[in-house]
Design goal:
The protein is α/β, with parallel strands linked by helices and 255 residues long. The protein has nine helices and eleven strands. The chain has two domains: 3-99 and 229-248, Udp-n-acetylmuramoylalanyl-d-glutamate--2,6- Diaminopimelate Ligase, Chain: A, domain 1 (3-Layer(aba) Sandwich); 103-224, Udp-n-acetylmuramoylalanyl-d-glutamate--2,6- Diaminopimelate Ligase, Chain: A, domain 1 (3-Layer(aba) Sandwich), CATH 3.40.1390.
């Protein structure tokens, strides 16, 4: 399949254009030629020299990631950025990126994958960002005790050497759960306003501890990387149905 055609199909599935004005990441084909023939696609959470080289070693023709190299504008491709991009130049390895579109997708997205893991029902978009959403909320089929939920996440997620962290300021048994993966504590106020029992995200900020305590809500920090493996894995499964070979690359950061 031609790279340009594959990127078009991904853009349509992920609604890439809907996030164009609200995402600092230039989503879609971010690096490389669109006229490359694609038979094998590698997937990773982060674009980096390490994942690009791993994609080359796997024999992939395209790397698809959640986090790209560019956030905002790029004035010069020199120094460290040039070095990071070098495997793409040397091996004609295009890079396709889906940041907020892959967070917000209600079936393939990162939050949707976590909701699947927790077997949440009655799901709805959560995490307003302009006219779009970057997360999901739902209701636990069987309510979780907070320590039970933390233990499940510790067992199932690739958190590296760190443990899942809990700000235990809400009810001991949680049923209504909001999810914004990655760096999602900015949606704490929305979680409080919607009356959820717990906000599940990746990493926090210093003030989030006090804000959660004062609001009386539980917050779980399960790791930025660990909460954002679901989207690229779901995309790999989808692209396999399009007749392409896929490889999912694990490169946990522990963050």
């Amino acid at each position: 399949m031609l790279c340009a055609d594959l990127c078009t199909r991904l853009d349509e599935e992920l609604r890439t254009d809907a996030y164009a004005d609200i995402d600092a990441s230039p989503n879609g084909l971010q690096v490389g030629p669109a006229d490359t023939e694609i038979e094998h696609v590698a997937f990773a959470v982060d674009a980096s020299r390490a994942t690009a080289e791993a994609a080359v070693d796997a024999g992939a023709d395209l790397l698809v990631t959640h986090h790209g190299y560019v956030f905002g504008s790029v004035e010069r491709v020199t120094g460290r950025l040039y070095d990071r991009l070098e495997p793409h130049y040397d091996y004609d390895m295009p890079l396709y990126v889906s940041h907020l579109p892959l967070d917000g997708h209600q079936e393939l997205g990162n939050a949707a994958g976590l909701a699947d893991l927790l077997d949440l029902t009655d799901r709805a978009p959560f995490g307003e960002m302009g006219p779009e959403h970057v997360g999901q909320r739902g209701r636990a089929t069987d309510p979780f005790e907070t320590d039970e939920l933390v233990a499940l996440l510790d067992d199932e997620l690739d958190t590296g050497d760190r443990s899942v962290q809990l700000f235990d300021f809400g009810p001991d048994v949680v049923e209504d759960i909001a999810i914004v993966t990655g760096s999602g504590v900015d949606w704490l106020d929305e979680a409080v306003a919607e009356g959820v029992d717990l906000l599940l995200t990746g990493e926090g900020k210093q003030q989030a501890y006090h804000e959660a305590r004062e609001a009386g809500i539980n917050v779980v920090l399960a790791g930025h990387y660990a909460t954002e493996t679901f989207g690229v894995e779901a995309l790999a499964e989808l692209i396999e149905t399009w007749g392409l070979e896929t490889t999912v690359l694990a490169h946990p950061t522990g963050i």
